[in-house]
Amino acid sequence: MKDEPTSASHTPVIPAHISSARWTSTSARALYELPFNDLLFRAHSEYRENFDPNRIQLSKLLSVKTGGCPEDCGYCSQSARYETGLTASKLMEVEHVLSEARKAKDGGATRYCMGAAWRSPKPRDMEMVVTMVQGVKALGLETCMTLGMLSPQQAESLGAAGLDYYNHNIDTSERFYPKIITTRSFGDRLETLENVRQAGIKVCAGGIIGMGETAEDRIDMLVTLANLPSPPESVPINMLIPIPGSKLADAAPVDPIEFIRIIALARILMPKSHVRLSAGRKSMSDELQALCFFAGANSIFVGDTLLTAANPGEDRDSSLLRRLGLTPEAMSTIE
Ligand code: SAM
Ligand code: DTB
Ligand code: SF4
To answer: What is the mean pLDDT of residues 13-26?
Structure first.
């Protein structure tokens, strides 16, 4: 009996082969398929071992260069390949970025994430983004950027400017990836993550649930992240926001129970990482979000807007956090 998942005893029994240091699809799937209460108990226990479960990290996003992107990511409002109705804009002036960052700090955010709709930054863009990093850091915020692929030299420049985190998602499993993006490969993504790591910048990497992938794809995405030489410090799990005009405009909604299972699995596979309940919260019930927080999600994006899409906004979020007794995390130095 001992090596089979069961709900017969009061504590979940985890098969011995699940406790190996490197995760496999099989060992991760065995966890994912545990009875729901056993999975949540295991995830929440892991969570308590590593974090204060009543603290939540708050990040704020700003799109510093919107739309007109040459890539063909099937989920994205900013790809020039789809008619999504978005107006493209040029790289934002540094002063504008800093005034937005000041507002985010006043709103309680500790990390400021700047995103650009680029395949990768052009040499002429680097000076401006470096100035943005330095300016936002000087306000006393942690900095994060997501600018597409980075060469080792670009990662070095951002690291030298003091960038704390770089976000670059693997988005899904290696198997499903070509169904969603054809203009850059899964291997390209891993290479950028390696360049970021080598430059001493903390890694933020996750993906999207709800693009038509199978449970196996979702699990394998997490296994790939957990098995990186060092797991990402920050793992954003996005629920697809279907964008009218994009390739995935009509994707089927995600079963909320399966979504919670993925959050729980992310917590168990990457026990020391912040797991961010990222895009898609606006369409989630308070109860679904509460279960995600119980399962180990401990970071969110705050504010009315993500990069281009809607987010719950301050009123709904402050009410939810208050009702759940969750308090914002101070700036972290550990992670
Ligand atoms: N252009 C950069 C890049 O792709 O590397 C950075 C910005 S991109 C918008 C950042 C991530 O946001 C994507 O990798 C994807 O995981 C997520 N994302 C984009 N559009 C989304 C949507 N409609 N729903 C959920 N997540 C989305
Ligand atoms: C991530 O994983 N989610 C954020 C952040 N990284 C850059 C972006 C979500 C974008 C949602 C769609 C939009 O706002 O356009
Ligand atoms: Fe461009 Fe990033 Fe959108 Fe892909 S996800 S189309 S790279 S902005």
So the answer is: 65
Note the pLDDT of residue 107: 86
User: What length does the chain have?
Assistant: 335
Nearest protein Cα to ligand 1, atom 4 = 148
Question: Is 248 near ligand 1, meaning CB less than 6 Å away?
Answer: no
As a whole number of angstroms, the distance between CA 240 and CA 162 comes to 31
Q: Mean of the per-residue pLDDT values for the chain?
A: 93
Distance 54 CA to ligand 2 centre (A): 24
292 catalytic residue (yes or no): no
Does the reported pTM lie above 0.85?
Answer: yes
Regarding the beta carbon of 79 and ligand 3, being less than 6 Å apart is answered: yes
81-140, pLDDT tens digit by residue?
999 999 999 999 999 999 999 999 998 888 999 999 999 999 999 999 999 999 999 999
Binding site membership of 240 for ligand 1 (Cβ less than 6 Å): yes
167 pLDDT above the threshold of 80 = yes
The CB of 146 under 6 Å from ligand 3? The reply is no
Please give the number of the atom of ligand 3 that sits closest to the Cα of 119: 7
pLDDT(264) > 50 = yes
Q: Once rounded to an integer, what is the mean pLDDT over residues 63-72?
A: 96
Residue 281 annotated among the catalytic residues of the structure: no
CA of 134 to the centre of ligand 2 (A): 23
Of the residues 42, 113, 218, 261, which is catalytic?
113
- Ligand 2 centre to CA of 211 (Å) is 14
Buried b / exposed e across 32-49, counting CB within 10 Å, b at 16+? Answer: bebeeebbbbbbbbbbee
